[in-house]
Design a protein that fits this description.
This protein has a two-stranded antiparallel ribbon. The chain contains three helices and two strands. The two termini are 27 Å apart. Helices cover 37% and strands 6% of the residues. By secondary structure, the chain is mostly helical.
Amino acid sequence: MRALERRVLSSDEAQRFVASVRDDRLEALYLIAAFLGLRQGELLGLRWRDIDLEASTLSVRQTLQRVRGQ
């Protein structure tokens, strides 16, 4: 099994990505995924109460996972 290769976005790529998701209903989710590196289950378990805009913090308090394909 090959190790998973990861690549960091260049500054130009990051700017294009941000522009491409602007005004999408899932914009916040895409930006959190891209720039904080959360796993899919962590992203899908987020609620607005997990984000403190004043303190600039995000807490992963729960995750969402499939059980037997559901």
